[in-house]
Amino acid sequence: MTFLDRPWCARCGTPFSYPAFEDMECPACLARPPAFSKARSAFVYDAASRPLVLGLKHAGRTDALAAYGRWMARAGAEILTGADALIPVPLHPGRLRKRRFNQSLLLARALSKASGVAIAPHALARVRDTSTQGGLSAKSRARNVAGAFRVRERRRSEVEGKRLVIVDDVHTTGATLSACARALKRAGAEDVTAITLARVVKPVDPLK
Length: 208
Ligand SMILES: [Zn+2]
Description:
alpha/beta; Rossmann fold; four-stranded parallel β-sheet; binds zinc ion
C-alpha cells in the first residue's frame, strides 16, 4: 500500500515526485481549478489497495473501517480542523436499494469517529443515477455527473455558511467531487473540501 503524503498539490492532493512549496498547485489544477478548495486521500488506488476498496464497495467488508477512518483523518488533518460537517457522496435511491448500503456513508461514519466532525448524511441528494463511470474519459465523466446532485431544500440550513467535507471511496478524475461541491456551493456553503480513502494517481511531470 502506498500512503499519500507531502509534497502534494495544495489543492487536489496529487503527490509530487519532486520537492515543492507548501502552497504549490499541480498543472491540472492551475489550468482547470476544481470546484472543491482542497482534496486529500489516505492511499493510492493501485493493485495493492484495489481489493480493499472493492471489498468495501461490493461486499460491504466493514472490518477495516476503523483503520480507514484513522488514515483518512490523518491525510485530511488540515481540512478537518474547523470543518462543520462531513457530506458522504449519496447513492441514487435505486442503487442504494440494490446494494443496501452506501460505502461513502460507512467511510464518513468511520472518519467522524476518528475526527469528531459530525456527519450531515441527508443534506445532499443524488437526483440522477450516474453510477457507471468506469471506462469514461475525464471529460465524459464530468458531463455524466453534471447536475446529478442537489441540496435538499429542507436541509439547506445544514449547508448555508458551512465548511463542508465531501467523503467518498475513490478520487478518480474529481468529476464526482466537483459536481457535489458545485451543488453545495450553489446552496450557500462557505467552503467545500473532500477526503477520500483512495486516489487514482497519474505521475506529474514538472517539465510539462
Ligand atoms: Zn492539483
